[in-house]
Design goal:
There is one protein chain. The chain is an alpha/beta fold. The chain contains eight helices and five strands. Strands 2-1-3-4-5 form a five-stranded parallel β-sheet, with helices on both faces. The radius of gyration is 16 Å and the shape is globular.
Length: about 220
């Protein structure tokens, strides 16, 4: 879906309208300022936001001691992340690693064409590289959604991934696809993994953490 001037909504930086959203943005600015140092940032949507509840015990074990900041906001699409970057969330820090996971809400909320969502991700990466020139960016493939591999939203996310994978140079931007953690051999997604076929259950957060730990140990 695009506006009348043919500029995709996915790259038009704007805030969410939810009442809690701007207060969280402000609170995260304060949290960042209060930290002695920010070495690791997780940036994304509700799947990342949930490190603060479903994944909290894992976060406290793996990430809190390493100076980690959670910048996951439920419901965020690429344009919301772009707004947050433009409005100071990453100012004044130089983390060693940033983990980026975003795009599934572009798929779910508007069913944006994969090319437009990928362009949104590309714009985010460009902003990150400009503002955090020394940071290693771990770009995660959009997590699988929908029970069956042939369903429309799953296919959209799969197509996004084939496009954004090309943005990695394995020097500054590193791409990793964790889909195999969540799917069976036939590509089906179980309710035991994601009860709503979108958000990982609490049991999946330790698996996610383990899957990226080698990368974090190398670069933190």
């Amino acid at each position: 879906m695009s506006t009348t001037d043919n500029t995709p909504l996915a790259i038009q930086a704007c805030p969410q309208e939810a009442e809690w959203w701007l207060p969280r943005h402000q609170q995260k600015q304060q949290e960042k300022s209060a930290m002695e140092s920010v070495n690791l940032v997780f940036l994304g949507d509700s799947i990342t936001h949930a490190w603060e509840d479903k994944g909290l015990s894992v976060w406290q074990e793996y990430y809190q001691p390493r100076g980690a900041l959670n910048l996951g906001f439920s419901g965020d699409r690429t344009e919301h992340v772009l707004w947050r970057i433009a409005n100071g969330e990453l100012d004044g820090i130089a983390p060693k690693v940033l983990v980026l996971l975003v795009g599934t809400n572009n798929t779910g909320h508007r069913q944006d064409p994969a090319e437009e969502t990928a362009l949104g991700v590309k714009c985010i990466l460009e902003q990150l590289k400009e503002r955090l020139p020394t940071t290693k960016i771990l770009l995660l493939a959009v997590f699988p959604r929908s029970a069956k591999p042939t369903q429309k939203l799953r296919c959209l996310n799969d197509k996004i991934n084939t496009l954004v994978e090309k943005f990695a140079d394995e020097e500054t931007v590193f791409y990793r696809d964790l889909s195999a953690l969540f799917l069976d051999r036939e590509g089906y997604l179980s309710g035991e993994v994601m009860a709503d076929y979108l958000h990982p259950n609490a049991s999946q957060y330790p698996l996610w953490a383990s899957a990226i730990e080698v990368f974090l140990q190398k670069h933190l």
